[in-house]
Amino acid sequence: MAAAQQLSHVWPLGTTVDERGHLILGGCDAVELAREHGTPAYVVVVDDVRARARAFVQAFAARCDDFEVTFASKAFPCTAVYRLLAGEGIGCDVAGGGELALALRGGFEPARITLHGNAKSEDELRFAREAGVGTVVLDSLHDLERLERVVAADGRGPQTVLVRVTPDVRGETHAGISTGQADSKFGLGLAAAADAIARAQASPHLQLDGLHLHIGSQLLELAPFREAVRAIAGLGDFRTYNLGGGLGVAYTADQRPPSIEDYVEAKVSAVRELLGPGRRIVDEPGRALVANAGVTLYTVETIKQNVSTWVGVDGGMSDNLRPMLYGARYEAVLADRAAAEPQATVKLTGKHCESSDVIVDGAALPTPHVGDVVATPVTGAYGHAMANNYNGALRPPIVFVERGEATVVVRRETYEDLYARDC
């Protein structure tokens, strides 16, 4: 008989299996969490998030005198997550008015917030100005003109800005999360960026601090970052270079992303060697801060054999849309037999009225039974962010676990929530 399987490195830091075979997250029994809070449920190991935030800061501090680490909050826009990371002393970037409202509620200093967006409205820009947002990233000439009007009207003095450049560098990732190629919805090509730079520098309402670039998410190779820095080197001499985020994470045991230290070294050395010393470097990790801290718990509702073995759970594409959008791969375990030998390869499927609603295609599990609790790791990024009410599904709660204590930071939706906005 094969030996019991070991949990892979994709699980949150500190995850263990106890003597009963139960999965332990942040010192809490996953089976008990499911029993107490219901399923589906997002579980977040707080110490994992803290450790990764500190690792980013320490890696930059060891290599760079002037830097800022900012949370790319689209990955997990939850007030409690904002509060947790604000407490770690990093900055925050937001992709619209809603994320800005959450970041402010979560305690981020407005001056350390960066506003992104390829189609920012005047209302969002006014909100940012009223809040005192430190930096606005200009994504187009229309963006620049709109911000100039807002700043001129409010009389609060110039707004610090960066110009987002599309460097025509594509990282190896899914097309849906690639952003650095020439034909991108984000940023300005090199020629248009030069025009935007000149207009921003000439504007009495804008204070151009530097450039922004981002070539994509879930990148597992470092070479494209240097190529992107090389591409923008000819656009001028600036104080600040925001290099976006992009560091990939391991979703399955076979993936080995670069370490935080190697990622930071690649970016800092590229700036130093291609742009010169003394630059302020800003980095925007999102997924790499929160993905591996999150685990989603489900309950098995049905099992059937239709050529494949289909194991249907009580969630799916309403709480994790990534497999359906990007073909993303995940692992799964049974929470009460977390280290048991796999005995079946199944299609772990959601409950929604779509054939594509498959969470893990080819999950290796002990023989599953109705009522089992299934845990899928690496759902801290974009699970809650992309959660939806398809088929009237109720969005799951978020439960923080730390040192054996569990705290609900977002409650489960109710049916009343589904029609609370009806007029």
TrEMBL record:
Binding site for substrate: R287, R322, Y326, E354, Y382
Domain Orn/DAP/Arg decarboxylase 2 N-terminal: 47-291
InterPro entries hit by this protein: Ala_racemase/Decarboxylase_C, DAP_deCOOHase_LysA, De-COase2_N, Orn/DAP/Arg_de-COase, PLP-binding_barrel
Cofactor(s), by name: pyridoxal 5'-phosphate
This protein's UniProt keywords: Amino-acid biosynthesis, Decarboxylase, Lyase, Lysine biosynthesis, Pyridoxal phosphate
Family note: Belongs to the Orn/Lys/Arg decarboxylase class-II family. LysA subfamily.
The protein, known as: Diaminopimelate decarboxylase
Organism the protein comes from: Paraconexibacter algicola
Gene: lysA
